[in-house]
Amino acid sequence: MFKNLKSSTTLHNGVKMPWIGLGVFKVQDGEEAVNSVKAALEVGYRSIDTAAIYRNEDGVGKGIKESNVPREELFITTKVWNADQGYESTLAAFDTSMKKLGLDYLDLYLIHWAAPAVGKYVETWKALEKLYKDGRVRAIGVSNFKIHHLEEVMNQCEIVPMVNQVEYHPRFNQRELHAFCKKHEIQLEAWSPLAQGGLLEDPTLVEIANKYNKSVAQIIIRWDLQTGVVTIPKSTKPHRIEENANVFDFELSPEDMTKINSLNTDQRLFADPDDFNRV
After folding, report:
1. Which residue in 54, 109, 121, 168 is the catalytic one?
2. Structure pTM?
3. Which residues constitute the signal peptide according to the record (predicted)?
4. Which CATH architecture has domain 8-200+221-246?
């Protein structure tokens, strides 16, 4: 199941999505983004996750082009920002992202936040359905959606989201949401899987890391995989990008999985999707 960086999960529409990708949140556009993407692709990553609001789609696109990795081997994700939600504005935002990325088609397009006060995520989802039906994107999904947001989309639209990308780490393992997504064949994906570095000195994780002769980051990423969650750790350092991918030569025992699961506090580090409406 988890053999290497090309190992993938199959979304409910049959599209294969790599279990591990490179996240580029807060990666500077230009040289930093270009080099990070190229370093990841050279190591063997095939999934890159960006977003319009990251303002680095140009750099990501340039890194993809300069890597010379065949397009069909890649899985590229970007997201529509809150200010662009709405049917026509989402279609326009998609065109803008594609121009910046320099791509003919996208592998996964996500609604970045539900932004309930904006009140347009159902309308936005219908625009994603059109892009999907038109063959411009291979899979569509959402990000930072809670159960009731997903239910509203599923009740009012035709296509069930294929992915839900959310805050997910050992201290916030979203058990109810994960169970809901499994029931409806929605692939859960973790952003900030290392809690922006906040877990790297956790005593339990350090102990487990020493046992396997791995870094804490590698333990967390492996835990993600074994819980069936796609993960996109972010780094701009080539050695860290490579280290984060070196998680296929060991397996966490059931006892250690239980220990990591016990770290859950149900406390978010970041915004609650019901309250985040920034445009």
Report:
1. 54
2. 0.97
3. none
4. Alpha-Beta Barrel (3.20)
